[in-house]
Amino acid sequence: MKRSIGLLLILAVLLSSSACASGGSPAAAKEEISSQETENQGDASQASSEAADAKQTNLTYVTGADSSGTILEIIKAAQEEFPNVTIDLQEIPGNSDDIKKSLITSLAAGQDDPDIFSMDVIWTTQFASAGWLEDLTDKYDPALYLEGPLSTVSYGGKRWAVPDYTDVQSLFYRSDLIDEPPATWDDLVRLSEEHQGKDGIEWGVLFQAFQGEPIVCNSLTFIKSNGGEDIVGGEVKINSPQAKEALEFMRSLIDKGITSEEALSQKPGDQLPVFMEGKALFMLNWPGNYASLQLSPESKVVDKFSIAQVPVGPSGTKPGPTVGGWNIAVNSASDEVEVSVEVAKFLAGEEAQTIRTLALLTTPAYAAVFDNPEVDAANPILSLIKASLGNARSRPNAPDYPAMSQLIAVNFSKALAKQSAFDESLAEVEKGMQDLIK
Amino acid sequence: MRKENLLGYLLIAPAVALITFICVIPLSQTILYSLRYYNLTDQANERFIGLENYFKLFSDSKFYDNLANTMIFAAVSVVLQLLVGLTAALLMNAASRGAVLVRAVVLVPYAIPGVIVAQMFSFMFHGDFGVLNALLRQSGILSSAFPFLAKPGWAMACIIITNVWKQFPFVALLLLSGLQTIPAELYESAEVDGAGALKRFAYITLPGIRQMVLVVLLFRTMADIRIFDLVYSMTGGGPANTTSTLLYQAYIFLFKDMNFGLGSAWSTIIFFIILTISLIYLSLFQKEE
Predict the structure, then answer these.
(1) pTM score, whole prediction
(2) Which of B258, B259, B262, B266 has the highest number of chain A CBs within 10 A, making it the mutation to test binding with A?
(3) Which conformational region is residue B162 in: left (phi greater than 0), alpha (psi within -120 to 50 degrees), or beta?
């Protein structure tokens, strides 16, 4: 008797461990979940036969943590619009990488949760190639959105998300000290040298070259404002004289003492306190930071700064600022795709974007929001950003973008830290990018 | 007899199941993935490719750079942790009054999460606001801000210092427990025989804690080779990739690139590196016994 119980136990252990083994693979996890689903649907159909028309749909929406309560306000508006939908909001703390890490875990396992999620503009190509995104090409009218943000949801001729809010690298400048923002790199250097050491100005220009997205965004802005390119029509064009000139210019700012060498270890947020203290004349940064500079009580530059397009290099003809921001996407494995698409459209629609723009002073991707006088009054620099958006350039549009980004970050960091020659770094990046897009 | 055998198996079954579940299965799955082309953005082409991932990694200078960075980080960290930890342990052992309080205070760094420690130290190393630069400038050693985290070489020194600060309490506590097993009579009789403080340290203290030092070395080496959080939040592997470590690169392959094949191969290599080092330590233990 005892022996048979023991055998049973061993059998149970063996079974459970083999179940775990198969549970590890994404396909099996999918099966497990879909079997759960059918059970749930069974329950639901029973319930719906009892209460005929009150079918409640539960959706999960994953987005970055927001302490201001703005997301909750948007969700409330969405609930009023869709009374039969219950939106379960899940806020993930941390930066873009942290959010991506937790999203990948569910998406790679083919889970139907989350149904809707916020997506950094640089994930579009990767997530679309992995088959995780619902194709939204025919689901909304693209004419309602600005062109710059739309370029960040497009890949392979299709649209994979709805643009939510956008950000385009701009030049913050001290409007109390400077009448006309610099249009060229020469102006940038001249004005910096004129003002450094006066009025508490320690640094001419702040930019960010932390090895990671910061150095990629900043150097691509300099390169593309100097007539350089990354990929054109599927061909890698990064190794050009214009690109070399741009990187050399960035380093020359450090060598001339206009930019602190500290830049090599700085992310966009690290430099806000420096500008806020009134220690810098110019700062290349995301206008999404406008609110913290203008509204935080510690800021010494309230009403003393404005935003302009990034200046143009000697070999360039127009600014080429990097575009960032977030879009809203629908999980292709969601069991409620149709409802999810409608809710996603609302979450990135006019009402939601107006709420967000007013509360957080971010830049909307929905064109009509710009025409709202209330929005204009709350965020006077919005009209200036709109001009920048016309020139906005997205980062390389390839499924292996993260690997490219890493390649660019490492090699440009080596060049800017004088650990390798500019030519060598650019050649290395070009070779690596060619391997990645073939 | 057979009944007792069965009971034995039954009693270890939960442990075996647990180890199978949390070690054997994930490990073998990682090794299996490492033999495949498995990129989440290109799942249509997933296939068995043998050792190709490994060849690719071993022919890439990135691997050797990361390996060298990791080994420098781990070696310097472990030596410094041991020195600082031993000093702290000796102080704590000597403290007769307020010993509990001293121990609690020493433990504080160990109790703070790594990412927060990283933020604290990043701020301290900051050129415009950091306390380190402020002190150096006020005392006249520096005339202008020194960008510690932006200089190749210095950035590595910064993350090592941060790591030593965070981890030395663990070392100190283990060594303290070793120190407390040494009978006080030994010191007393040595003193009577005329042995000075240095001699007592060399001939009584050090042999007395030798076992514990080995334990500390084993734990700290394994942990420091797996350094991730400080690199992730303080440097991103920069500047010029001089602080990129093995585990940080694994994170990039797996979570940024979503290349599970290459990332698994990389992780498998890390596993074998740590395994080798552990085996060396364990053989040292056996010699001791």
Answers:
(1) 0.86
(2) B258
(3) alpha
